[in-house]
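Residues determine shape. We examine one folded chain.
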Amino acid sequence: MKIERWQRNLCFLWIAQTVSITGFSFAIPFAPLYLQDLGVTDPKQLRLWSGLFSSIAGLTMTIMTPFWGYLADRFGRKPMTLRASLGGAVALLGMGLVRTPEMLLLFRLIQGAFTGTITAFLTLAVAESPKERTGFVVSVMNSAVFLGTAIAPLIGGALADHFGFRLTFLISAGLLFLSFLLSVFFIHERAAPQQQMAFSFWADTKAILTIRGVASIMGMIFLYSACRNIHQPVLPLFIQDISTDPGRLGAQTGLVSSLAGVASVAAAVVMGIVIDRGRWGIGTMSAFVAALFASGLFFAQTVWQLALLYSVTAMFIGGIDPLLKVMLTRSVPQAKSGSAFGLSGSAISCGWFFGSLSGGMLAAIMGLRPVFLVIGVFLAAIAVLLTKLVRKVRREKTNE
């Protein structure tokens, strides 16, 4: 069977994306525990610092991602993959060398401003592939993201328990640099978009947001990102609270994250294929089931109970993301895909900032467990909104 050019390119994009996400996931999940090594030991202060660390990159990424998406449409999508992976390597290297929590936050800000590998690689993958295969391409690239989050925490946690958290950040930087090299030598773009001298960033943004349904999709992307990130500053600390083996916190945190990643990989691949066939209703069903299991995390008493519930929740959450991305891709012209994914990346980052910060604040005020109930509420809201949007799209297709 002959392998077409876009398929070969997609293969290397998938590898580069997997490596980059593996790099981020090798260290970032353990940041709340790393902050303890940097001197933050008071429980309430630790929860606030964890919330700040988890959220602050989302703030700079919210601001910068639409700009990077605009540049992708104007000057090429491949340069954006190079910027994102190299920026990540520099930021993670800095995190591994810091001596204070303030310096750690500074490099986290830099990470948010200059990275965004998920958006960069996905934009190039969609632009270089046939439009009728969008669902397949999105599912493949999503599987890279989830696979990276599945592999890395397990290995990174075990290494952190034996050699310290600092080493995991240094290894992460090396993996991001490897992703950069893969982009340089193996990933190609057919032709960079024609450069335009007129800077029409705001005009492009307004034009995309006024397309029917796009604003609603962006709102759901924001909620989706918030519910995926609200627990990030809480999860390692919750495991620390319920664990009976405090000497293996890194490994246990990695195990919980990795099992969820494996479940998400399976969901991403299956959902992409199903959504390509027009069965969008399964995304709404996934959101409802995810809301139920996320609320159940409130009652977890052991690490294994947490791992099971968290994995099932992640599997059903994985059914939402491909649907939102496919709906967005099919709503905008391909020439504007970079700007559209830039805006969606901004919505993701804004949800990341809001979710992580509110998760840390809620944990400091109300305790760790109530955060999981909030995730369930967010997912239920997404399910209701998705149901309405899918019905609206189907009615419009019927009337065409």
Summary: The chain has one domain: 5-184+210-399. The first helix runs from residue 5 to 27. Residues 5-184+210-399 form a domain with the Growth Hormone; Chain: A; fold (CATH 1.20.1250.20).
